[in-house]
Structures
1.
Amino acid sequence: MISFKVLAIYIHNNGFSQNSGELLLRFDDIDHFMDGKKKKIILGISIGVIIFIFLNCIHLIWPEPSYELIPRDEAIPDDAVKISTETDQHPPTLETSFTSIYEDPIPMPGPINTAGAEDACFITPDGLQFFFWFTPDVNRPAGECVNDGSTGIYNTTWDGAAWAEPERAFLGWNVLDGCPTFFNDQLWFCSARNNNPMQMYIADHNGTDWVNFQRIQDILSQDYDIGELHITDSGNKIYFADVEEDGLDFNIYVTEKVGGVWQTPVSVDAVNTEACENQPFVSEDGTEMWFTRASTTEGTIGPPEVFRSVWTGSEWGTPEKVISSLAGEPTLDNDGNLYFVHHFWDDSSNSMLEADIYVCYRK
């Protein structure tokens, strides 16, 4: 029996023709021993066989592209320059009112930061797992990040003395994943996949791989662009930010789960302003809300800054600025250590160079 591969090569080189007697049954031969009815049957079978062979040989003639995971250090462009605290033109600054509580901001220690962009960070309350998003080049178009082998979600663990080398939380090909949050042993993340716009998914870890990807099939995916979120109150509340009608301003919302169903989100008016409030984090005890705020003027968004609001017992208090200058996406462990993303900006080229994770340790 001739193989599909040989047939595909032959057809690719010679095409379908009456001279392909070695491979295809010639219809003029049928006339010598078949009547009209049988000829129709054979013709139908022959056409079906040809279609079957063609469909099964497409991947041999035009094979599916192959992809491979690439380590972060190998994916970063050769001309990329690692920005240091000494060469940073806009270093993050701790507000004076918080210097008695926190140490000054420093780059997160360990093998986390590179000359690429580390962003969208999240630390588990026990301080033992850390998730973040990485891309090797902040100026690469989003479409080119899909299947580049390195852009995506990473996680690292604390062994009691140091952070381990981050590993890719691989969630499939032909997708673009980000904004990770980890709750009840499940990874929550936003993803553009299956030809759908960006939506929220959850995944389980079986000890080796991430499995059981499930899209959130409720109001949160249908009517809101929730992006970075934070889950609190034993999993019964979600804080997130949604873009307003102008496409520029973001405000923070909260939704509660009642009877297993997420309710219509409510604006957290105590922290929302005409500026852009985004990327909320709520402490595990529910007493502090941390978030990113950026001014919006003349159709542009200004430099992000980190703010904190304290729960008064009945409502969220007036937010206070904690860290200024290109700082955002705060996340804290139960010891009160503050982790956040810092973007490095070059004034001469008016462009972003890279991004790192920073930390302010609580005194």
Note: Confidence is low (pLDDT under 50) at residues 1-43.
2.
Amino acid sequence: MRRTILPKREDVQGECDKAHFLPSRFPDIEGVITLKLRFTVRISHLAICVLLQMALLTPSAKAAELLVFAAASMKNALDEADAAYKAAGGSAVTASYASSSVLAKQIEQAAPADIFISADSDWMDYVATRKLIKADSRANLVANRLVLIAPTASDAKIEIAPNFPLAAALGEGKLSMGDPGSVPAGLYGKAALTKLGVWEQVRRHVIGAENVRAALAFVSRGEAPFGIVYETDAKIDPGVKVIGVFPEDSHDPIVYPVAITQQSHNDEAGKYLAYLKSPAAREIFQKYGFTTPR
């Protein structure tokens, strides 16, 4: 009889580290922003890595543990919600955070997520049109607001209104925001600035960050005098303060849709999704500044 020899866990881990993809049981995309295009060329290597890691798990572990891909702006709130879910008897949850655009592309490339939480409808639509989510599981989870921030020590005062003097306030400084070509917070920001008639004046000042938390960090570190982020991001960083809120009619509603991925066969996924929509989870989300979608 031929004997099957499984690789050592540490050897599998080493291969996954080389692929910049699976630092634990499943992929954690914290740093996936360094990956982007490299993901496509490494997909074979990553697929092997996924299979090897899953071979080392017991059937019960594979069935129970959930992998959630969530927009970077959800991190603090979702981490607390996940801990509460587990404390209440739910399964362990591994959450991977990045820009919604990056996560959607990862799902398209067969990354084994069970749940996807996007920071806008467009990227959820992207995976939906490719039949990568279970359509009947989709729901709008939370909502957010778009704000203009400055370092805490700043004495800047700006009233956001049509043709407001943001360019003059910037001077030669930078405006930190998510990449306006792909990151939801950047897309909302560009739409708002365009509607208010100031985009063309400030576009050369823009630092297009890979996700909203990176945009927040530029301002918090004092590397940019102003930034555009979500209200929830500004609340968790003592290094910044909100100096203005963008009018809701200056951009599309900021909603976070959630769905179970098409490839997920984890029985816990439906239970977890129901928990995210429960009053208990909603209370946690509201604590961090998220609101209920209309």
Note: The chain is about 40% helix and 15% strand.
3.
Amino acid sequence: MGLFGKLFSHAARKYVAHELSGEVNKLQRAELMSQLRRSKIYTFEEQSPHGIVLTGCVREHNVKDLTVPDVVQRIGKGAFEGCEFLRSITIPPSVGVIEPNAFRGCKNLETVRFSGGLMMIGTRAFEGCCITEADLPEGLVILGDRAFYNCTELRRARVPESVKSFQNGVFYGCEGLEEVALPRVMHGTICNVFAHCKSLKTLIIPYGIKSLADWCMEYCDSLTDVYIPDTVTKICNRAFLYCKSLKYIYIPDSVREIEVAAVFSGCSSLEKVRLPIGIRFTPRFDKDFDRVFYNCDKLKTVVLGSHSFSVDEPPDENSLILMHTELALMGNPTARDYICDNLGEVMRLLADRGDIALTERLLGSERVMAGLRGAEQLDTAIDYAAEKGAHEIYLMLVQYKQSRFGFENVGDRFAL
């Protein structure tokens, strides 16, 4: 028991007993608070409705090992911020909340012993500490923004099942983090939670997560295995930027969108990626660097659905369209729907490439074109081919429209 605990153990036990029974004696409360203040070691406040809040300590005492007395309900905002002398702290079950910045910058704080009553760890509560292990207690609900930001000595962390969503950057910059156990089910997004965790090798993303948001796992240099559940629908900006050890990644069918924003840029060991049929690369920025697979020079295999394609260059939006076209021509119904729903975009690409052969194959495939529901996409493609001067493709499109839908205006007749 720490120095403070020895001084006030008896009074603290009496206080808690009365508090729990609902019969707190005002005189005893006043006496206890008076003793707490006279200690000249720690500072406290009695705040309604929070109870007793530990607000700090007198720095001159240089207390290295702290046992928080079991009458404290909260550790206040910035209570020990910058206390470089603090080495360890034991938090009793009476503490329900650790407020923002409570231990921020305690650069020699190595050991934190949590107890089961804790429900909330505030923003940047342990930022910059040298904690080596974070075994968070069951019952914890809120794990605040950047709670363990830049805890570079942290090796292992366990987040209990009671935590149902992540705030931003919880473990950002924990360069020594090797193992992390997460709840089986969570909700919402993961945004820069594990960015710059350079020692993390394996990550199992909890079921229920909807989006891998910005900077989710960027600069995880050692990451070799990542499991993405089939609840994720979107992967965002720089999610896996410079994950240099990642050789293969499986993107489940639930993912419908990957932002063209350096999501896998710099993954220099990436050799194979599995993508779902119908996936879209959606623009976010207008820079070369922001291509999805920029600088992934070893990437030679793309599996679209269950079909494997060999590629000479990392896939981009255009090569993705061409792979879907080939897959549709092979008879894949999902790829067929993708082509018919995006025929205008497909034909723009073929017109840009001057690819007469593939245009002829596509328009000649009844199996593929049967999914086309109207002439609007054809009209878009016809206009674009005319604008580009792709005359043969233009004529093919007009003739197909005439055979499928008939002439609708004088312009079509004149074109033929």
Note: The chain has ten helices and 23 strands.
